[in-house]
Amino acid sequence: MYDVAEQAGVSIATVSRVYRNPDSxxxxxxxxxLQAARGLGYVPSGNARGLASRSTGxxxxxxxxxADPDAEASAESDETDAAEMxxxxxxxxxxxxxxxxxxxxxxxxxASLAGGPESLVAKVAGRVDGFAxxxxxxxxxxxxxxxxxxPVVMLAGPRxxxxxDHIEVDNAAGQxxxxxxxxxxxxxxxxxxxxxxxxxxxxxARFRGYQAACRESGLPVPDQPDLRAEMTQAxxxxxxxxxxxxxxxPPEAVLFANDQMAVGALQAxxxxxxxxxxxxAVTGFDGIPxxxxxxxxxxxxxxxxxxxxxxxxxLLVRRLADRERExxxxxxPVTVTRRASCGCPGxx
Length: 348
Description:
single chain; alpha/beta; six-stranded parallel β-sheet; 13 helices; 12 strands; 43% helix
């Protein structure tokens, strides 16, 4: 910084303002400083800034490892653009990155791979000013400790810690509306629901919405999903095959707890010569970009995943500005997207 100031003929304070608040420096002076910095290869030190301001300029995101080998393999193929394979966590990351840039923050991302989320969250907490955590990624007791020092926003799932800011989408209402559409608009009566694992709060909320729609329509209300599975394309293929192998009358429509499973099911049904929606209707949940690219295009519930990430940053920034403000809990609405896989005309 001293060298940049000397070469540009300005004070050290001016160099600092160029990087901290560029609009406060006259354009000619700002350009001279940046040109000198480029010539010298100068990059501001985040560590030094943190020591001076007691902040890092970084926000964190901690989420489970949602890797789906099938989706990743497809994204790496020559036939499919990787950008079209965006999954749930990718959209949250994109939303957070966009909002973080707007507020002058960088984003540190940690997926809970082997080694455990406990060690990851400790590392992240020491390097960020605040962070967002997807539900069930980090033990509640660990979050309680960390939230005494850092702002924490919980994403998705039920609100488990009252004093933390929290955002979720209306999973139950979305699945209820989609199920009612299949029953009332298409006349399907034999339905099957493929849920996620019991520790997935979003999948469980979606099943409750399914139950509510069945109850309102006078259909049998199951206590449990017809099948449970990890929410991947491979498991969607497996569960679709399992439903066909059960014997008796097959379901008229199968509702999957997320789009990835539904996409896998479409692949399995096509291989077996089962027509969708002619023989069986298929629906998903999430609204990932892949849902409109498969054939038939997938009827789904689109949740505002990118907006979820953006709102997480907004809450963190507000909390950093006022640590005493009342905690906020947001419920974001979802929309049913009706496409060909349930028998509707194409729509986007």
